[in-house]
Fold Putative metal-dependent hydrolase.
Amino acid sequence: MFTASDWVFHDLTRPLHPDQERFPTDPPMSVHLLSTAADDGFEVTSYQVVGPTGTHVDAPSHVVPGGRTLEQIPASQSLLPLIVLDSPDVKAWEERHGRVPAGCFAALRGGGWTVPALEVLHSRGVIAIGHDTLNADPADLAAVGSFPAQRWWLEHDHWQIENLRPFTGLPATGAWIMATWPLPAGGSAFPARVIALTPTGQRER
């Protein structure tokens, strides 16, 4: 039985606001207060954002015409075992922690996935990846509009979460990740709520 007191909850979601980091070609988020609880009985706010805003999920259709959309990612993948890497060297991680388990979510501190690393994760049966940067690829590639790692991963029918908060306190193994998002019909990317869970008393290692 799940007991909340047995777990520590780590919110990996960056709050949405107009001044947040964003892709250079994307318009900033706009927020408009339409009514207030004090004056109108209800507070109603209008938010205008692009899909890949803040902490967000990318479905395969983000880069693949006709690829799976957000609503086609099964709900069963909302909760996955979590592994955390400090570099994209998957083989080095496995030498220390054992083989990457199938069916997990792999998160990378500092971003900068490489295609060879993702090829290994794909071969291990990893479901999804995430990173605490705005892009899956190294900053020097993203700066010139080149996204080979992101494209490779999504083109192989996986999904990813970008712009997570730093993974402070998360162990290399033993945690879980819970991710949810709205389901815009046909949507390819959208803000997400992402929470990691570690067993009470488990330390980062």
